[in-house]
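Reopening this ticket.

The earlier resolution said the output was attached, but the attachment link was broken on my side. Pasting everything inline this time so it's all in one place.
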Amino acid sequence: MNILYGVPGEGLGHATRSKVVIAHLLAQGHDVRAVSSSRAFQVLDAAFPGRVLEIRGFHLAYKGLAVSKSRTSARILRTAPASLRQNFRQYQQLLHDFRPDAVVSDFESFSYFYARAHGLPVVSIDNMQIINRTRLDVAVPPSERGHYRLARNIVRLKVPRSRHYFVATFFSPPVSKARTTLVPPIIRPEILAARPTAGAHILVYQSATTQHDLVALLQQLPGQEFRVYGFNKEESHGNVQLKAFSEAGFIADLASSRAIITNGGFSLISEAVFLHKPICAVPIPAQFEQWLNAAEVEKLGYGRHFAAITAANIRAFVDGLPGFAGALASYAQDGNAVLFANLDACLAGLGTAPGE
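Inline output:
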């Protein structure tokens, strides 16, 4: 089967998990081409040379630690004309070189619209549809309800009427819509191969690096060792070590960590859960999906959910580490076997009526 695979360029979580699925599809004998943008395109193009087309995606803009709606809107309006021209050229190239039989979308629009224009079935694989296709099992506080409604509407409109929705998740709320299958998080081979050990350090990852007081804040806990990724520097500040990005180094530090402090990003939280690492989750404001992941971490007993990184919050997290480790000890998943089996069966049955 010829498969077009759409991967957003915002963040690298989409790219790392899509690499896993694309590699599986190729191993199954499918001919796969991908479309993506920004850093995700670079990651996929390096992994699958000659199979990835570069498109122009839309990206979030930050003000402080939060997503800025006004700056994001202004950026989209400024870049949209050139982006649409680039995407139309790639659309024409795709028509010339490749004839897909189906589309797989990881919350990506170009591939979805291509499928709709050509009457092709769409299979959705992402974590975002948890917001739209399940009944959430955590209480959404008043401060997050507006973000929840906005996120749910965006997710609902992203890839509607897909043939099937595979929703990667480390928690299991009740499914509320048909053609929806919850599957364990997609784990990359490097994490599957990692052998977790209980080291002395706490891994800290910050995707929004505008919290410039982070080092001084962590130094208020001199009895703890912190290895910090996100500033892309190699510096030592007493008990705080800043680390330049290295995939191998990051995975080694994650696997040997005592615990992690991160935002609410799904990919790292999922890898930490898989490796049984307690999690202190501080979601980026105004991103409901991150709030949900952090709330579920606390609900499941895997760690703590805080609105901000403070010395007091970190102390409270550290004090609870034995209990969090105990809750995580019961988590288990058989690699990516559940998704792969369900995806293979879905692709084999794509001759049936389209989704609604």
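Reporter confirms the inline version is readable. The first strand starts at residue 2 and ends at 6. The two ends are 23 Å apart (CA to CA).
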